[in-house]
């Protein structure tokens, strides 16, 4: 499962940190029931049960909100792939295994509640949604975590925080109190998961500064969201960035930089040559990303202004 004895040694050394953070997580995580967040009184039968099939006029969501909900749900749907990847990268033994299974169980609630909401409220085409789910899960995951355990734990730290942000912004875009309450609940889970991984990655930086810094830089400079293989992902990603659900500025200012500050990446003095080079590369990349985010914002403002003028 692991390519080098050094990775196994690192996993053993970090297991007390995993156990401590698992206990912390269990002490503060709130158990909740997906059925408590769904307006069941809005539900009715589809044609197969003598009712009426979906029609676009039945949806109360904007096109942006529908695209965001579908993107977020399909991302959650691919949980079996994520479980496989994280179990292979971490371990199925001891505190590691307990965490992997607990994380999977908590994540599974997200797809359940979001699908129930979308189906009951007839917010999106359920037939198309099912077709997309089958296609996305059949495609599987183009693993963003290939490499060492250090790559995996760095990636999931950023990915959990990015997902939290996307869920919160999607809830607001829905302009529906029920959807916003539901997605706030999902986002709260994602935040706790992010804290677990952030603490673990921080401990890895202390134990193995140079390889952890190299892995961190590789993850940040090649970051992709895990929904890359879903139908229509690139089109939806552009739409969501255009309307502020998740864009380059948010990725930089609300995901990357807060985590890097928590790890004190640019203040540490425990790197040697390899770690220093990786940190310099990361710094250069962040400067480039800053420029790209500014250009995107300027372009978006021009585009929205033109659309407003035409309207």
TrEMBL record:
Binding note for cofactor: Binds 2 iron ions per subunit.
Alphabetized UniProt keyword annotations: Fatty acid biosynthesis, Fatty acid metabolism, Iron, Lipid biosynthesis, Lipid metabolism, Metal-binding, Oxidoreductase
UniProt KW Nucleus keyword: no
Residues noted as binding Fe cation 1 in the record, renumbered to the chain: 76, 107, 110, 190
CDD domains tied to this protein: Acyl_ACP_Desat (cd01050)
Cofactor: Fe(2+); Fe cation
Lineage per the UniProt record: Bacteria, Bacillati, Actinomycetota, Actinomycetes, Mycobacteriales
GO CC field: cytosol
Biological processes, Gene Ontology terms: fatty acid biosynthetic process
Protein name per Swiss-Prot or TrEMBL: Acyl-ACP desaturase
Protein family membership: Belongs to the fatty acid desaturase type 2 family.
Positions annotated to bind Fe cation 2: 107, 160, 190, 193
């Amino acid at each position: 499962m692991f390519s080098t004895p050094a990775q196994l040694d690192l996993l053993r050394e970090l297991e007390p940190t995993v156990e401590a953070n698992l206990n912390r997580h269990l002490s503060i995580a709130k158990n909740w029931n997906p059925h408590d967040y769904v307006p069941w009184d809005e539900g009715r039968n589809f044609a197969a049960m003598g009712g009426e099939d979906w029609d676009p006029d039945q949806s109360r969501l904007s096109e942006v909100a529908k695209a965001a909900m579908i993107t977020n749900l399909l991302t959650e749907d691919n949980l079996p792939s994520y479980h496989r990847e994280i179990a292979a990268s971490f371990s199925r033994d001891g505190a590691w295994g307990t965490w992997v299974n607990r994380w999977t169980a908590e994540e599974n609630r997200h797809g359940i509640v979001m699908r129930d909401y979308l189906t009951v409220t007839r917010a999106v085409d359920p037939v198309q949604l099912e077709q997309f789910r089958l296609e996305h899960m059949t495609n599987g995951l183009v693993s963003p975590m290939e490499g060492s355990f250090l790559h995996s734990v760095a990636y999931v730290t950023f990915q959990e925080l990015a997902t939290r942000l996307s869920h919160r912004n999607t809830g607001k875009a829905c302009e529906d109190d029920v959807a916003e309450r539901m997605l706030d609940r999902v986002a709260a889970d994602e935040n706790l998961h992010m804290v677990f991984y952030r603490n673990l990655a921080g401990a890895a930086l202390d134990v193995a500064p140079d390889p952890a810094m190299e892995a961190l830089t590789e993850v940040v400079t090649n970051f992709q969201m895990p929904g890359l293989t879903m139908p229509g992902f690139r089109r939806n990603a552009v739409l969501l960035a255009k309307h502020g659900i998740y864009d380059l500025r948010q990725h930089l200012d609300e995901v990357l930089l807060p985590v890097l500050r928590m790890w004190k990446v640019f203040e540490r003095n425990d790197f040697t040559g390899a770690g220093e080079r990786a940190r310099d590369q990361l710094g250069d990349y962040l400067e480039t990303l800053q420029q790209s985010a500014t250009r995107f914002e300027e372009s978006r403002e021009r585009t929205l202004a033109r659309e407003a003028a035409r309207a």
